[in-house]
Amino acid sequence: MTDTMRSHGEAARGPSAAVAAVTTGSANTLMRLTDPPMRAVQRLIGAARMPYVFLLPNLVFFGLFVFLPIGINIVFSVTGGTALFPGERPYAGAEHYARLLDCGSYLDAASCREDLFWRGVGNTLTFTVLQMVAMVLFSLVTALVLNRPIRGRGFFRAVYFFPVLLSPVVVALIWKWILQRDGLLNAVLTTAGGEKILFFVDPGWAMFWAVFVSVWAHMGFYTLILLAGLQAIPRDVYEAAEMDGTRPWRVFHRITLPLLWPNLLVVLVLVLIRSVQVFDEVFVLTGGGPGTATLMVVQYIYTTAFANQVQNFGLAGAASVLLGAVLFVLTLIQLFLTRRRAS
Amino acid sequence: MTGKLRTGKLGRLLLARRGGQSWHWTDIASYAYLALGVLLMFGPVLWLALSSFKTPAALLEFPPSLLPMAQSEVSVPGYPQPQPLFRVTMEDGSVRELAQIRRVGILAQMVDPKEPGQTIRVPADRRIPVRHMALAVENYTDPLTQFDFLRFLRNSLVVTVVATIITLLINSMAAYALSVYEFRGKKLAMLGVIGTLMIPITIILAPVYLVVTKLGFVDSLWAVILPGAATPTGVFLLRQYMLTIPRDLIEAARMDKASEWRIYARIVMPLSMPALAVLAIFSVMWRWNEFLWPLAVLTKTEVHTLPIALNAFQGELQTQWHYLLAMTVVTLLPVALVFAFLQRFITSGIANTGMK
Question: How does it assemble (chain B) (predicted)?
Fold first, then answer.
């Protein structure tokens, strides 16, 4: 028992030790204030019911800000009008769903009644596919390079990782400044003899940069997951392969890839879930433009509910329910995969 | 493909690899890739920082200069204002530094600051501005007085600190209940917590807005602080850690007639410090950077947090990039500092928990 205690104590050193030192003083005062009432509660309901007391605050928060809103969202999606309070909204049945799904042809957004929603769906799909390919490719290559016997691994890992912590608004503004008409990239292009490109006027370029900036901002996170997976592969497997004279490509194909596969799968699904919900960076970077070239589903929901002249909570609610259903399935897959990885 | 590099002692020291093997082309490719990575990841942030110190005039230059530069000026006797300084190639090929006092069409009237009496006419294309490095610190100081920048900074700080304290408290309480006790409904509670993993705030924006309105929090910072305070990732992270705390400790405390609250606050919490620190860092990052929900719920300018204020500025101040860049740097700075000091701690925290 003392061993375990010591290991806990040792883990507590480092940055958290300072936190602990600062909090000790106020913790004493807090204890004197909170212990008597909590002791009274325990005497009243008995020690066996105390876990409910500990759970209560969290469940109240979840109830108010997650479970209740899910219910309200479903009510929103089947009621009409502009009122925010569900009781004041007339029942509309499946009207919003019908409106969202009313399309001449699902392959052509222009033939849909809510063409913006379908453009959002199309753009989000494009974004998701491009993002998954680029993200997995770059984070895998980076993780493989970082897993080699190189000097300064910690430094390089940090270099790729730090954008993960930046605010999406900051990330978008950094790149907007570089990509603007008279920005750094166009300066480089013209110096090299090329012509200025208006990156945010051309739909193709706008989508390219939306994907690029997202990969730039988040690849460090996925690199970290893959690097952890690579480092968990036992050395002797590679040593055995080396002794057999196996070619490097074959080692990668037959050893690295299969053993890394669980981590790779988790990365794929996480990128998928986050791409489907993409909003922040792209919204600040392109505003959804030019036109609707980078308008994503979440931006459609946000605009429909909050930014439009007429706040249409019903339509936004129906779109959210559809998006939520997609996310629900994706998250189930993710949970299944992480559980399998753990076991 | 393997070739031994023949170099001096110093060269060998610099080029030596871990494990003492010789270089292979893949090593060179690796370092080239990493060098490119450093340029691509750091370059944009460095460019932002350099640009944020440029004057509006310098920002309009194309192609832009790397460092923040400004045109030098000299005071010329007989002129109240300092005059811009140019390097002029004269007709005889000599080069002189002259101050420009007036420009008419393609002709510039210049004077030598040392002989202010004599005006020299020079074609405008024969002069190059004399420049020196100048940091436009006013990009940082002006927003303080002009846009109430301090208020946005304070709003962000309040949201981050208060939300993190609440997050640590309520999630650790729930994690404690779910790790130390056996009780009826435990499975259901766990399932409920897992369920919330699947509901990002993006898909329940409008209903959460309704709840917040009914609670009377619209356009107050509580509207941003409260909805994200209970986090399933936080509960799981803490619970995993608390499960490793030996039960004997808790039993011993019960023998000593400690209340359950006391066990939580005095035994389990201090022992969970590493996990709490990880959650605290993540909570700070989440809150400092949060965008979509505050954008939806904070409509009044005086409650804007930094990211929301930045976003509003980039819409309004299209032409005032100098302020926008400086404010972006201020928003980025705390995160950069936290990362610089806690880098190892953060990366290992993410690698262990798989969250961000």
Answer: The complex is composed of two ATP-binding proteins (UgpC), two transmembrane proteins (UgpA and UgpE) and a solute-binding protein (UgpB).
- List, as ranges, residues 224-283 from A with C-beta within 8 Å of B: 224-225, 227-228, 266, 277, 279-280
| Interface confidence (ipTM) of the complex | 0.80
Helices (H) and strands (E) in chain A — how many of each? Answer: 16, 0
Q: Which CATH class is domain B147-353?
A: mainly alpha
Retrieve residue B18's tokens: 């871990």
Q: What is the pLDDT of residue A11?
A: 45
* β-bridge pairing B131-133 and B95-104: unpaired
Q: Determine the residue type at B224.
A: V
Q: Is A112-342 assigned to CATH 1.20.1250.20? A: no
A54, A160, A328 member nearest B41 (Cβ): A160
Q: Chain B residues with CB inside 8 Å of A227's CB?
A: 351
Of A64, A159, A338, the CB nearest to B42: A159
Nearest to A80 by CA among A69, A101, A96: A96
* Neighboring chain A residues of B345 at a CB cutoff of 8 Å: 14-15
Nearest to B191 by CA among A64, A59, A60: A59
Q: Which of B14, B204, B226, B254 is the best residue to mutate to test the A interface, defined by the most A CB atoms within 10 Å of its own CB?
A: B204
CATH code for the domain defined by B73-129: 2.30.30
- B95-104 and B83-89: which strand pairing? antiparallel
Q: Which of A2-6, A164-168, A277-281, B29-33 has the lowest mean pLDDT?
A: A2-6
What's B64's DSSP letter? P
SS (H, E, C) A199-262: CCCCHHHHHHHHHHHHHHHHHHHHHHHHHHHHHCCCHHHHHHHHHCCCCHHHHHHHHHHHHHHH
Which residues, in sequence order, are bridge partners of residue B109?
B102, B121
The answer to whether residue A306 neighbours chain B at the CB level (below 8 Å) is: yes
Number of residues assigned to chain A: 343
Q: Where in chain A is the domain with CATH 1.10.3720.10?
A: 112-342
Dist CA B310 CA A113 (whole Å) = 35
Q: Are strands B127-129 and B131-133 parallel, antiparallel or unpaired?
A: unpaired
> Which residue's structure tokens are 């949201």?
B159
Other beta carbons within 10 Å of B340: 10
Domains B73-129 and B147-353 share a fold: no
Mean pLDDT by 10 residues, chain B (356 residues): 45 51 77 92 92 82 77 77 80 79 78 77 78 79 79 93 95 93 90 79 86 89 92 88 89 89 90 87 87 89 90 72 87 84 75 58
Domain boundaries, chain B: 9-51, 73-129, 147-353
Interface test with A, best of B250, B273, B345 (most A CBs within 10 A): B273
On whether any CB of chain B is under 8 Å from the CB of A189, the answer is: no
Tell me the CA distances in angstroms from A131 to A199, A223, A265, A289, B36, one per residue in order: 19, 14, 15, 18, 21
